[in-house]
Specification:
Layout (H helix, E strand, L loop, with lengths): L1 H27 L11 H8 L3 H13 L3 E4 L3 E4 L4 H25 L2 H16 L1 H4 L13 H8 L3 H10 L1 H10 L6 H17 L3 H33 L3
Amino acid sequence: MQEAASLLELDSETIAESVFRRIQGAIVRGEIAPGSKISEPELARTYGVSRGPLREAIHRLEGQRLLVRVPHVGARVVSLSQAELIELYDIRESLEGMACRLAATRMSVAEVDELRRVLDTHERDPGFQAGVGYYQQEGDFDFHYRIIQGSGNRTLAQLLCGELYQLVRMYRIRFSTTPNRPRHAFAEHHRILDAIAERDGELAELLMRRHIAGSRRNVERQLAQAGCEQFQRGDS
């Protein structure tokens, strides 16, 4: 009986992890739109799970800032204001610049070589080759993630690869399809990597800060264009 109970507990944990990952991916990719109200019965039907594992997944998604609780409304997918989004990019510029400077002195030769192989993978991606977006896999396949981990600073890694990571990915994916931006970002990644390989922390930090500042300007242009189009349509 004890073994059976343990197996049931394991199955419950596996189901909770699976539904968490599936909903997380749908939010980050924009399949569940920003600002959408979360309906537990609807999600339970969509993903074929009971309310227990689903509520655990929702709680974890709130911890990643992908879901927010609105009084008298319930959980909604996060939808940052323009000011909040720019603040997020300002934080990234500062902290990822620091991570890049540290990585230039702390990453091993093998880690730098592996980072170069990551960029080779990005270049071969069909979406990138077609010019419709940048390679968007997470974790060890993410150029920014690998540099942050390579900084050797656990506090930075906790912030940028933990608490804020999926929220940042959500907006990186959303704004990655601007014409010519994927190619520019790829070239900037290569220059950052070259500076790290040369152990030039000052240059690596400068290039990363410029790279993220360029992304921020891209976001501002897209938001301004969307606002102008909305005004021209007469939308409220």
